[in-house]
């Protein structure tokens, strides 16, 4: 049924990609792909280990003449994101991924393709089975649950891998070599929701801030986007300076790893001040529309009459909350001193929710430098300690600090130039990669990440560029051939 891709070159790579497409492999349900890898190892007489977390490691000795080379780890992840179009009938736990070719792209039929990271697995298997490819000792590491928790990388034991050079095959832009990523953590503040009766002569209003673009709290944090939590709070803070208002409800932002796109509040205003309050709301709307006219053209700010709420926050809590949200940092905290235009450290004020008996404020921090990640997390925490909130911080996951002098980076960049007469781009990303965890468990591991071009990853539009897959394959082989002597 997937025969189309079997006519592509390099044929063994596409053979294995096709095999992997047949195996359901949602995150945290990797038993079948793990069993397939184990059977592969057995039938090729390669030693294979399944660690207690569920990661698979296959070892292969060097090809003739390459016995004295350093060991290289080829790393990819077994799971895939399972997304489909509403009209597509597909059971990700049982059905194979159906592929098709469209121009220079391999695509699925209404589902994610799983080239992220099936193509990394396929390339590795094609290398492991070959008796003509030149390489030193190889450790092929297949991790579980990269997509929803980095569970496999978290669970690596420090004695599993012998090699100290790692090539991560999970990047999505051919021609780019990745040498760093951000670690992350969450900081969550909680306050008791103390309420009182609505003050006399107050009228209720609903404030709605919508139409922002949102975006990924790492990749998009430096794009000048509006934060709905911040913009709503700025309005309320200034309103409280000028008018007698009381806050009944705030529901702002949503996911911890997304920039807040929408924010809503219900407040009451003294009836003598309604006219001035509404005039202030209009003025505020025009101010923020002007500030964000380039990055947030669809921004909408509305103030409209609401039904009377049951209660409002006690006054001291309102002041504390608005002050702390105003003081809480959001956005880029530091740019990298090693890589031009790379965000090193950032924080995202993600959401504010009034629950049954408490107010929950969720934030997340990222940095490629561990100490800077702790620093920005503590900066956010102390904003909320000042109003006596309870603050909890997650352990988080470590970043991968870019090392422009890395030996495997130099070797890979030279190989790329030799093969394609072009310099690769050298980059780091302000989001998580498994390399961050590997580096924390194996200090001194020399790492680089590259892959073919994949567009629309994590969506049914996921597609794999065929020409870039050929280049990815050639680069991988050229790097293996040139790994230095021990
Ligand atoms: Zn991936």
CATH topology of the largest domain: Aminopeptidase
Strand percentage lies at 25-35%
Total domains: 2
CATH class of the largest domain reads: Alpha Beta
- Helical content class: 25-40%
How large, in whole angstroms, is the Cα Rg?
26 Å
Associated small molecules:
zinc ion
What is the makeup of the main sheet?
Answer: 9 strands, antiparallel
CATH architecture descriptor text of the largest domain = 3-Layer(aba) Sandwich
| Number of E-type strands | 23
Count helical runs: 12
CATH homology group of the largest domain: Zn peptidases
3D architecture notes:
This protein is an alpha+beta fold and 486 residues long. It folds into two domains: 3-182 and 399-481, Aminopeptidase, CATH 3.40.630.10; 185-393, Alpha-Beta Plaits (2-Layer Sandwich), CATH 3.30.70. Helix content is 30%, strand content 26%. It has helices spanning 3-6, 11-21, 31-43, 115-129, 151-154, 228-242, 274-291, 315-327, 370-385, 407-420, 434-441, 466-481; strands at 48-50, 56-60, 72-77, 99-102, 105-108, 138-143, 165-168, 176-181, 183-192, 195-196, 202-210, 245-252, 263-270, 300-305, 312-313, 331-335, 343-354, 358-367, 390-393, 425-429, 446-449, 454-455, 463-465. Strands 9, 11, 12, 13, 14, 16, 17, 18 and 19 form a nine-stranded antiparallel beta sheet that branches. A six-stranded mixed beta sheet has the order 1-2-6-3-7-21, sandwiched between helices. A hairpin with a 5-residue loop joins strand 1 and strand 2 (56-60). Helix 6 packs antiparallel against helix 7 (274-291) and helix 10 (407-420) packs across helix 12 (466-481). The structure holds zinc ion (ZN). Zinc ion binds at residues 77, 116-117, 146, 170.
